[in-house]
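Dear support,

I submitted the protein below through the web form. The confirmation email said the job was done, but the results page showed an empty box. After a refresh the structure appeared. I'm attaching both so you can tell me whether what I see now is the final result or a partial one.
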Amino acid sequence: MDRIWIAAGSLAGLLAVALSAYAAHGLTLDPARARMVDNALTQQGWHALALIAAGILAGRWGGWAVQGAGAAFLLGMILFCGAVWYVALTGRSLGSVAPMGGMLLMLGWLLLAASAVLHRS
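What the results page shows now:
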């Protein structure tokens, strides 16, 4: 799974850069919606790096916690960033999808910390 997390993080980073260019040069939104897009892109960029870190640590340490962190980062990023983009572009909410994605992102960080504590050299 370590390669999957690294590949997913790399693709998420690529997509964040591409969407940033689109947002800067081809997307016209009111200031509130533009802030939503900026927030989604920031979260996607940070969590792309977190996925890569989870992949590297999964290859070195293994274990359920680091694998869970990778899964939580990936799913959380898709749900949170996707829902924020959806609201920004359509003006319609997806209900609890963004908060659920945010909770998964936080869970990912908690699991990454747990993997460090649980790891035995």
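Response: this is the final, complete result; the empty box was a page-load delay. The two ends are 20 Å apart (CA to CA).
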